[in-house]
C-alpha cells in the first residue's frame, strides 16, 4: 500500500514500524513547517533538507520507501521567497523530489495566490507533479480560487487536489485532476471514502492519512483497504486505490523496484552472514 500524503517529520519511528507491519510499503511525505519562519528562507530550506537527508533514511530503516514532496505551504509563505524557488528547481533537477507540495491556498489572499502561481509555473516548466492543499475552513469557496490559479498556470493532469470531501467532490470530478481522499479524524472516515469511491469509481483517486502533529490515524489506509476486501470489492479496484493509481500518477515504479531490490540484497547479506559466508 501507498500512503500518498504524510508529514513524516512529525511522527515517531515506532509509527513507521506499525505502518509497515500493516502493509504500508511506500509513503509520500510533504513539507509543512509548523512554526513561524520569520521571513527567513534558510529556516524553510533547513526544514526541506532535514526531510530529504534525514527523514528518508529514518523511515527507510523501517522498510518503508519514503518519497518526498517539497514546497511552500500557504501558511509558510514569506516575502523573501526567490531562494526557495531556486532550491526547488535544483532538487527537481537532481530528482530528489517527486512532487511540489503541499502547496495551495488557505485564505485565498493575494500573496497566497502569487506564491501558489510561482510554484505551479515551476511545476509546469519541469513537468513535475503537484500536491495541492485545500483548507478545512471555507473549503468550497477557496477551492474555486485554487482551480482558477491552476487552470491559468499548469496542465491539470499534473495536479492532485487533496482533502476532497462530500461538499467539494462535484467541484472537481468533471476536471482532469487526480483527487486525494484524506482518511483522518475530522476529515473522512474509511466508510466516507468508500462511499465516494462507490459513487464516482476508483480510477482517479488516491488515499492518504495526512498524518501529522494533529489528530491522525496512521493505519487509516490499511483500515480502508481492509474494509474494501471484507466487502468483496474487486481486486482490480482495490489495487488501484491501494497502490496502482499512486504509482502511475507519481511515476514511482522505478524507485519502488529499486527499494525492493535493496531490501532483498540486505536479506541475502543477513542470511549469508548467519551461515558465515563472507561476501
Question: What does it look like?
Answer:
The chain is an alpha/beta fold and 279 residues long. The chain has helices spanning 13-21, 41-60, 82-93, 110-126, 139-153, 169-172, 190-200, 220-230, 235-250, 253-274, and strands spanning 2-6, 26-30, 65-70, 99-104, 129-133, 159-161, 178-182, 205-208. Helix 2 runs parallel beside helix 3.
Give a short summary of the structure.
This protein is α/β, with parallel strands linked by helices and 279 residues long. It has helices at 13-21, 41-60, 82-93, 110-126, 139-153, 169-172, 190-200, 220-230, 235-250, 253-274, and strands spanning 2-6, 26-30, 65-70, 99-104, 129-133, 159-161, 178-182, 205-208.
Order of helices and strands: EHEHEHEHEHEHEHEHHH
Radius of gyration: 19 Å
Helix-and-strand structural type = alpha/beta
State the strand order across the main sheet: 1-2-3-4-5-6-7-8
Specify the biggest β-sheet.
Answer: 8 strands, parallel
Averaging pLDDT over every residue, what do you get?
93
- Which percent band covers the strand fraction? 5-15%
Number of helices: 10
Detail the poorly predicted runs.
Answer: none
Helix content range of the residues, please? 40-55%
Shape: globular
Separation of the first and last Cα atoms: 33 Å
Work out the number of β strands. 8
